[in-house]
Amino acid sequence: MKTALILGATGQVGQSLLAQALASLKISRVVAPTRRPLPTHTKLDNPVVDFEALPADARWWKADFVCCALGTTLRQAKSRAGFYRVDHDYVLAAAQCAREAGTPVFGLVSSLGASPTSRVFYLRVKGETERDLGALNFPSLTLIRPALLIGGPRSQNRPLESFGLFLGKHLSSLLPRRYHAVSTQSVARSLMGACLEPETGIRIIESELIRD
Ligand SMILES: NC(=O)c1ccc[n+]([C@@H]2O[C@H](COP(=O)([O-])OP(=O)(O)OC[C@H]3O[C@@H](n4cnc5c(N)ncnc54)[C@H](OP(=O)(O)O)[C@@H]3O)[C@@H](O)[C@H]2O)c1
């Protein structure tokens, strides 16, 4: 039986990760540090933390694996620096705490097109986060790169995403499978499956390989 550490458990993908971990017979304990408290569950430890000052010495950083679905939007973050702080710095800071505590496996929800050399700021940040996570030398690192997400309800209105989903729904048969929208549940299932059966080294799961 394993211990799972989930980052971003209040978000769309994070909620799916949390529900799947709590339901899994392979997982006996789930740790989900969040800035807002989660509903209680007998399997769940939910430390409420400030990601600007993570408690590096907390014992709960030691788990069998981490699944990370932390992230914000430029709209929410209000600046490129604010976006970078969450999507890069918070992810790296948490990963470092887990690595130093001896957690051997890390899985990140990244994005289709992530690349440190992308001209698109969002994709460049995702690529830099992937690259810098690689430098932490987790024995097993999985980077999942979904296309547009469909799934749980959004608390914030995201017009660009809605437009993308509209296009995705109506034009998906014309697009290569890599560009089809994928469900938050499928992303969570694929990432958690990879973390439960870790491979040594860096594994990249492109969007067309995300299981339904
Ligand atoms: N949406 C898409 O179509 C899409 C496509 C490809 C990849 N992705 C990537 O997939 C990942 C997950 O996406 P999602 O749609 O599940 O995101 P989401 O619903 O916005 O959830 C993001 C999570 O990050 C947390 N978070 C954000 N800012 C924070 C802060 N300042 N301090 C602490 N926690 C913070 C949120 O906590 P709170 O609930 O407290 O805000 C939430 O738990 C993201 O990295 C995103 O870039 C998204």
* Multimeric organization: single chain
Structural class, from helix and strand content?
A: alpha/beta
Strand tally: 9
CATH superfamily: NAD(P)-binding Rossmann-like Domain
In terms of per-residue confidence, which ranges show pLDDT below 50 for 5 or more consecutive residues?
none
CATH fold-level label: Rossmann fold
Q: How would a crystallographer describe the biggest sheet?
A: 7 strands, parallel
- Architecture, CATH level 2? 3-Layer(aba) Sandwich
Attached small molecules: NADP nicotinamide-adenine-dinucleotide phosphate
Strand order of the largest sheet: 3-2-1-4-5-6-9
The topology string of helices and strands comes to EHEEEHHEHEEHEHE
Range of helix content = 25-40%
Beginning-to-end CA distance, first to last residue: 25 Å
Radius of gyration: 16 Å
- Domain count: 1
CATH class: Alpha Beta
**What fraction of the residues are assigned to beta strands by DSSP?**
15-25%
Mean pLDDT: 93
Number of helical segments with 4 or more residues: 6
